[in-house]
Amino acid sequence: MSQTMQTGPAQNFDAIVVGAGFAGVYSVYKFRELGLSVKALEAGDGVGGTWFHNRYPGARCDIESLDYSYSFSNELQQEWHWTERYASQPEILAYINHVVDRFDLRRDIQLNTRVIKAEFNDQTQRWHIETDAGEAYEAKYVVMATGVLSVAQVPSMAGLETFKGQWFHTGDWPKDGIDVRGKRVGVIGTGSSATQMVPILAEQAQHLYVFQRTPNYTMPAQNHPMKPDIERDWKAHYPERRKFARASGFGHNQVTNHKSGKEVSDAERRTELENRWDLGGLYMMRAFKDILTDPQVNEEAAEFVRNKIRAIVKDPETAEALCPKDLYIGTKRLCSGTYYYETYNRNNVSLVNVKQSAIKQITETGLELENGDAYELDVIIFATGFDAMTGALNRINPKGRGGVPLRQAWAHGPQTYLGLTVHGFPNMFIIAGPGSPSVFSNMVTSIEQHVEWVADCAAYMQQNGLATIEASEAAQTAWTQHVNEMANKTLYAYSKNTWFYGANTPGKPVVWACRKFSWLTAC
Ligand code: FAD
Ligand code: N01
Fold this sequence. Notes:
The chain is an alpha/beta fold. It folds into two domains: 11-151 and 387-471, FAD/NAD(P)-binding domain; 218-382, no CATH class. Helices cover 30% and strands 15% of the residues. The strands form four sheets. Strands 1, 2, 3, 4, 5, 6 and 17 form a seven-stranded mixed beta sheet that branches. It has a five-stranded parallel beta sheet with strand order 7-16-8-9-12, covered by helices on one side. Strands 13-14-15 form a three-stranded antiparallel beta sheet, with no helix packed on it. Helix 5 (192-204) links the parallel strand 8 (184-188) and strand 9. The relative contact order is 0.15. The chain binds flavin-adenine dinucleotide and 3-acetylpyridine adenine dinucleotide. Flavin-adenine dinucleotide (FAD) binds next to helix 1, helix 2, helix 11 and helix 13.
C-alpha cells in the first residue's frame, strides 16, 4: 500500500460496487444472486445515478421507455407501466427506486458515501477502499459503476463568484426545483440537456437568453402518452424484443434501413428522411446504413434537417444561426426535444451567438461578451455537459498493481480490454466505460450485458478458486486499436471537438473514448 490511511478497521466484502445508478443497482442484484457479500457505496443521497442528479425541467430519455429498462426479470417488465413513450426523469427515478425495493436491494446500498480511494494490495490480492466518511473496506472485487456522465462540468468563467443571482448546472439540479417565473434566465450551452429544458423554461421565464457556441441537430422527440396497444404488444413479445436489442448494434429496437442512401432515388431518400423525422428522436440515424460513414449520405440528411429548421423558425437570421454547418449529423450526440426550434419564435426568447463573440466574464448582474454586449440575468443555467467517460474514475484514481494510478496508466487516453477491465488493475471492473458501446447504445442494455459478464466471470473464479483476473497488455492494446480503427471508419473521425473525444474537458488527451462500433458489422 502506498499510504497509511486514517480510517477505522476495514469491513470485508466479496465485492464493493461504486455507484448506485442502473449499473450499480444491477451489480448488487447479481453479486447477491451468486451468494457473495456485496455493498454499493453511492455519493448521492438517493439511488438512480443520472436520474437522481439530472432533475432539470424536461429531462427524459431518448430511447423508448419500454426499451430503456431492465430485462432481467420478466415479472418486473410485465408489472411496470410506463406512462409515456419516452419516460420523464421523475418516472425513471421512481422505476429505479421500485426495482431497489422490489428486490430488497436497499439494505446493501449505502448512500451519502463517496469513494475517495481504491488501492489494490499486491500482498493480499484484495482491494482496499476508503470513503469520505472515513470508512475502509476490503474486497476481492471492485465494480466501478461510477457512470460516464456523472461529473457535471461548469466551465471556468471569470467572475462567477461575483454573480448576485442564482446559478445551477443541469447535472446537479436542486431537488426542490427552481422557480424561474418572471425572471431573466440565461442558458449556456445547446446540447441535449439544453434542448430538453429550453422550451419549458421559455414558458415560465420573463425572458430567456440561450447562449449558443456550436449549434447541434435536434430531432422532434415525438413523445406521447403510452399507447395501450403498443404496451400490450411489447409485453406479449418482450423476450424477442430484448433478444433483438441485445443482438442489434445499438441495444434497442429501432430498426435500421439496410439500404445505402446512395442506392435509392431522390424521392425514396426524401420519403425515408420524412418518415424518420416523423418517428422522431434517434430514428434519423437509422435512415440509411451508411449515414454515419458516407459524407454525401450524411450531408443529405443534414441538409434535410437544416431545411426543417428554416421552415420552423420564422426569423431567417435566427434559423440560419441554429443550423449546424461543418458538422456531420450524429457525430455530436443527436438531440431529441419537443418544440425546441418552435421556441425561438417566441418574443421572450433570444438566441445569442457566443461563437462570434465568446463569453468574456460573469458579472454581478449577468454576463458580458468579448464584444462588450452585456446581458442582465437573474438566473444562469450551465447546460455545459460533463467531464465525460473518465471523469468519475479519474477522481477516484484507483491504484493498481505496484501502486500505479489509473491517471498515469491512462495519461495518453483510456485503454481497456472490452471496455470492462484495465491491464494492471486486477479484479476491477468498469461498467459501460471507455472502449465499450456505452453512450452509443441504449445504456441499460449495455449495462445489463456488462454486469452479467462480470457476474459470470466472478462465478467462474469462485468455482475454480482463482484469486485474480486481469487483462493482458497485449489484449488491451489490440482491443483499443480495434476500437480506434472502427471509429476511424466513420464520420466521427472528422468531428473531434466533442465529449466523445474528451475535447470538452481542458487538459484531456483528445482520443476516441467510446465504443467498439459493432453496428458497422451488424448493419
Ligand atoms: P450513473 O447513472 O451516472 O450512476 C453513477 C453513480 O455513481 C452516480 O449516482 C454517482 O453519484 C455515483 N458515483 C460516481 N463516483 C462516485 C464515487 N467516487 N463514490 C460514490 N459514488 C460515486 N442513456 C441512454 O441510453 N438513453 C437515454 O435516453 C439517456 N438519457 C440521458 C439523459 C441525461 C440527462 C444524461 C446525463 C444521461 C443520459 N443517458 C442516457 C446516459 C445515462 O447516463 C445512462 O443511460 C445510465 O443512466 C447510466 O447509468 P450508470 O449506473 O452507468 O451511471
Ligand atoms: O452536454 P453537452 P449535455 N461557453 O456536452 C456548451 C446525455 N444526455 O448535458 O458544443 C459556451 O452535449 C457546448 O458548446 P460546444 C447525452 O449523451 C441525454 O447537453 O462545446 N458554451 C454545448 O453546446 C448528451 O450528449 C439526454 O461549442 C459552452 C453544451 O455546452 C450528454 O448527456 C439529455 C461552454 C454542452 O453540451 C451531455 O449532454 C441530456 C462555454 N464555455 C443529456 N462550455 C437525452 O435526451 C460548454 N458549452 C437522452
